[in-house]
Amino acid sequence: MIRDASVNGLQVRLRADKSVRTVGFAVDACLSTFQKARKLNVDLLVAHHGIKWRPQKDREIALRRQRFLEDHAMALYAAHLPLDLHPQYGNNAGLCRLLGLEDVRRFGRYHGIKIGYQGRFPRKRRPAEIARRLDRMLSTRCRVYDFGAKQLSSLGIISGGGGSMLLDAVREGLDGFLVGEIDLAVYNAAREYGITVISAGHYATETVGVKALMPLVAEHFGTATVFIDDRKDL
Question: What domains does the chain contain, in order, with CATH numbers?
Answer without folding.
Answer: 9-79 (3.40.1390.30), 84-205 (3.40.1390.30)
